[in-house]
Amino acid sequence: MKLLLALLLAASGKHDWLGTEMPLPLAVRTPQDLQFKNEAERQYLIFNLLASGKLAWDERDFATAAGKWESLLSVPGLDPEIDKVVRPFAEEARKKAGGKAGDVPPPPPPDRVSRATEERPPPRRRTSEAEGVSVEGTVSGGGQAGPGGAVITLRRTDGPMPKITTAKKVVLQRGKAFVPRVLAVSLGSSVVFRNEDPINHNVFSLSPRFDTGLYGAGGEKEEVFDKPGVVQLLCNIHSSMIGYVVVVDTPYFAQADATGAFSIKGVAPGDYDVEAWHENASQPTRQKLTVPRDGAKLALTVAGDRQPPAFPPDKYGKPRQQQLGY
Question: 153, 156, 199, 246: which could form a disulfide with 253 (CB 3.0–4.6 Å)?
Fold first, then answer.
């Protein structure tokens, strides 16, 4: 449409080349040449009728203008934008020539589209970085405990990452165990330790060091975790209680379920370092990942070569025997 209007303006002062034949001969040597020639002739016809009608209109030859434009509006597959621009002029020209607007060919039915529209494929939806995509996958391994609880993190290497969002999470003390046993939280988040047992608990960690002190049934204590890393949770009353808070410094993280499945949503396409931590692995699993605009899938394996301490320390760092039956 814009090209036709540009040609129209260029030809307004020298319209001697407007006619029934194309001013430029086009050779036809291949089937592709023939297709090109046919399309060029079609476009020239559209331009010819468009420009000739306007020149006749400017010269107040309304009958000629109406005839040219009515022929133009009858061209199959005409661009709807051309129809929209030309139709009011064609109707006015026909009235000025002694006819009525109804003499102008009607517009195509609503379900009819131009050939250009029919041939144009629908635009491919591209995911913006702000919207992000999903990185899904599975974790295997983890020894006898299985892959459940593995913490998977992504850290971008070719661009910035979104700001980390903090949250408040809860770890229960129930049945003389930490529930969940492993909890991943973003840097700066807080964790509430809530006692649902009918006995006392004293949650602590040696690194980073914190100590909730003793609290009874229904009590709770809150701690803020402002340093990244793995925090081993212990109870100074019950040496069999072990849990973990994994503090991550990236907004892209997830925990694997009991089957090892995980999903990280809202990931910006780009290059990433992947890390998978598991309590039974002496070293995290690491690999590179390029996330395309339609998302990515991962298959990770974690080791099972690490065992919990046989004699967990108390909150002063001293080893202690398992307290059976308490």
Answer: 153
